[in-house]
Amino acid sequence: xxxxxxxxxxxxxxxxxxxxxxxxxxxxxxxxxxxxxxxxxxxxxxxxxxxxxxxxxxxxxxxxxxxxxxxxxxxxxxxxxxxxxxxxxxxxxxxxxxxxxxxxxxxxxxxxxxxxxxxxxxxxxxxxxxxxxxxxxxxxxxxxxxxxxxxxxxxxxxxxxxxxxxxxxxxxxxxxxxxxxxxxxxxxxxxxxxxxxxxxxxxxxxxxxxxxxxxxxxxxxxxxxxxxxxxxxxxxxxxxxxxxxxxxxxxxxxxxxxxxxxxxxxxxxxxxxxxxxxxxxxxxxxxxxxxxxxxxxxxxxxxxxxxxxxxxxxxxxxxxxxxxxxxxxxxxxxxxxxxxxxxxxxxxxxxxxxxxxxxxxxxxxxxxxxxxxxxxxxxxxxxxxxxxxxxxxxxxxxxxxxxxxxxxxxxxxxxxxxxxxxxxxxxxxxxxxxxxxxxxxxxxxxxxxxxxxxxxxxxxxxxxxxxxxxxxxxxxxxxxxxxxxxxxxxxxxxxxxxxxxxxxxxxxxxxxxxxxxxxxxxxxxxxxxxxxxxxxxx
Length: 538
Hints:
Blueprint: H1 2-6, E1 15-18, H2 28-43, E2 47-52, H3 62-77, E3 92-93, H4 98-110, E4 114-117, H5 121-128, H6 145-156, E5 166-169, E6 184-188, E7 202-204, H7 206-217, E8 221-225, H8 232-242, E9 267-271, H9 283-291, H10 306-312, H11 316-326, H12 337-351, E10 361-366, H13 373-379, E11 386-391, E12 401-406, E13 409-413, E14 440-443, E15 448-456, E16 463-471, E17 489-490, E18 492-494, E19 503-506, E20 533-536
Parallel strand pairs: 1-2, 2-3, 8-9, 10-16, 14-17
Antiparallel strand pairs: 4-5, 5-6, 6-7, 10-13, 11-12, 13-18, 14-15, 15-16, 19-20
Helix pairs in contact: 3-11, 7-8, 11-12
């Protein structure tokens, strides 16, 4: 692309496009493509088109269209309702070009470059040959142009059943590239199209529609993942074969060019697709997860979909950072989920205001607090409280401060206390620096406390309360003469100001890096993580 720009190809302009199929929600792999298409165009003063490849009415849904638009807006701007639109011009669709695509198909027939074939799908596979054996020409390959034109129009007018016949390009049945062995350009497929309704009963195949749509929009750089590299000769053939028809617009030409055909057409460039560990990015598998109820929907926080990650709380800047770190190349990759998680942590660490939250609370009573809750209730007065003013962010003073209330009844994380047992003989694990019976810990931003008594449920023996003393001389930031220091620091909440919440704790959806690869049948569902979601009730 840098070479194209330096040489003034297309007048130095860069026009890319993001062309998803509206048959599912976008996922991490799409995030890489969105970031690349919009980013490379913007970096070079260009623009990006938003275009839906709506050539298969049987699998398309307006729900997917709406979700895709929300996701693209959010990925690029951080706002699902960004306005004005970040793409150039209106939202485009392959269906916008159905009349041109049909006219282009008729033109190819008239030039002897396409024919109507009535082989069954099984016969067509047989005639196509193999990677080591050339294909055989269909018995319908040499039909007269007039007959092909008549049959194609009959296909358009609904005279044949679905699958009865197709329109095929006439290229080379002996080509080592299987995609050039007379690929299908049009097929009969009845159904309600989200935009055109029942206007058409024949639809172009992706390779043909993709190439002609790019040419219609003046796309300069058609960016695709590597699995489309073998399709590039068909992309080129489609544009070059239709170009003389006059149906396609003219592009700006580079200086001193003598090649009229090449200076008026877009080109396809490939990059490696994103492969992630501990998840699946196959649309078929994602649909299976949703339809079979293994997740709660496309936006389930465990899903690798854009909407799922947004619901999980991932900021769009984290996905941009992830795409930058992964980079663009033609080398195969298999990225560990921890790379994405590190990006999320880096972005949130720099941006997110801090707050305390306790997953599994353990009650702590400060026995020497000046006016405990019980004493205040007995006296008909309010409990004495202390307020600590702490920064919302340790490195961003502009975010201001928050108030943290301290009183006689607190909560700490249950895991921040180690129970040494009723007899006190169970030692804590090596390196444990938090609270134990008789031990001390600092409550973050507040005081050092000492655990004097462990209260247990008489029926189960479970620890239900800790009775502790606080040391008034250890107020954070105001250490007195005692100079007391402890190694452990824990978070806490005031019982009087706590906000109850049902917590949904999510983990990775799969237990292995490559789901399904360890099973003969490839069943990825056998590797689902049964603990990928835990609900901590109020």
